[in-house]
Amino acid sequence: MYTVTECIENPLVVVKKIFDAYKGSTNVGIGNDYEVSENFKNVFATEAAIKMIPSINDICTDDIPSNTLVRFRCMIQNTGLGHEMYLSVFETFDSSGVKEEGSHTNNNVNSFSSNLLDSPTTVLDERYLYYCVSVPENNSNVIKKRSNDDDSIEDLDRLATKLNLFDDEQHHLENHNRRQLEKNYVASKFPFPNESHVSAIVKVYEKNDSLKVGDVMEIIGVLEHFTRRESGNNNDEFNPSNDFIDPSSLLKVPRLHAIFYRKLHSSSNPLISEVNLKNTTLEVQNTARDTRNSLIQYIASAFAGDLLVAEFVLLQLLSRIYNRRDGLTLGKFGINITNIPPSSQIDDKSVSSSSLPLSHTNPFTRNVAAILSSVLTKYHDLPLTLSTLNNVFFYPRCDGVLDSGVFQVSDGTFFLVDETVLKEGTLGDTGVRNMQTLTDILNTQKLNYVFPFNNFQFNIDIGLIIFSTAKSFFPVDCVIPLRPLATQETMPSLSEETLTEYQKYISILRYLDYSISESVSEFVQNEFVKQRQTAAKNGQSLMTPDDLFLQMNLARLTALSFGETELTTEIWKYTLNLDRVRRERL
Fold it and tell me: Are residues 338 and 389 in the same domain?
């Protein structure tokens, strides 16, 4: 059994030992990883062991030696890099004789390239390339975290210099300058302009057709740095099969040779792991009613005490796409909150996308954003200024290399879209496409990837709350006018423990299974008929199937908000009353 320390500090030595032990008993061949993944999974079988692996989300890759085992919580941004051929088994010779090698990085082959033997035992295999970025998360928290990370990196730099880990001060300065230059190579691969992130080319040694754009996972693999040697040699490094890829823009990005990876919980909440999921779920359900009440109060504090709006916002945060059937997207719940006070000052100067921060300027919207960002793992502002619409791409596009767009995020990401900052002006081609992108997402939860001669649609699942003074010009599922009950006050300051409780509540309950018994289904149908009969008798407008569809969706979300997984007649009646009060405001 190999030790955790050995696997982290010298993973390739461990791989070589595994390969040597494996080849002695079994024939090697194409598509065989020689039980490398299995052995490493056994060593890192616990969360405690996993956490001992350096994370490139938290530590700059320049401060981690090449060929170190690292982990990376990431989202797949591009699956179009194709695959590359490599020698999985080869023979070399030196003064000690002939050696048979197994490779999990390029360096093994390159370092022995002059001594490589033409051997019948050589195995040519392929590995699959993915461009991955750190998970686009809560913008305010991530910016704060990245700021802390930058401080930590500076501390590490000073420590490294003190310990003479750098050759000299000039090397240290070059290292720092290179980091800044590399940001220009990868900025367009991240959804949010001008925000720090981590990226890597992940090389996977097994074919997995289920991996797709937007998937969130944790990669455990061997870190490999870009070197000047590589940039001058077109034959020994990055050469993906896709002829449209520009290698010069990707060579600077570190490589991660995946030993194994694991899909993360759908919420991407680091507080939740598959190991403790069952216990966490029971804990959240048992306290759901109390948490629900306090969370609504907390959200209402940003809406001048409007509890109805706060409750509908909570339901939106619990919504997700749970099925797609017959052209219907079941579970989508885009909401529009109207009567939002506009900002007294709107700065809408034309600026480039690279310098345009996606942050709210309307004070009212900023207060709500502060609440949302404190209870959500993945949240981002989206002010709909004219400059934002015309200069920031909402959709991914490819003209040789796939560049990201604002909405190329992982499922379960939420956006607060603010129309109140939109002034009169002219929309350019990008602006028109952005408006159509947002409309398509609200209608179908599909995102267009724009290519030179064709577009491709991908299913997504993101939450959208739209602020406007009057009714939004975007199609939404539910409209709720704001009725302030008090003057805007300072936002309450809650403990980390309470905010963690809210985050778990949302992350767990929105993914619970939900069902309706036959008896309750019959009850709902009868109630719908009675509602139509009563409306006809009183000369009121009749309930439509779309109204019933909305109420069914509201009932599902209401049940989940109480920690329930099955609809009851009591919850149905509660939902009808909630919707009635909302309609009275329209």
Answer: yes
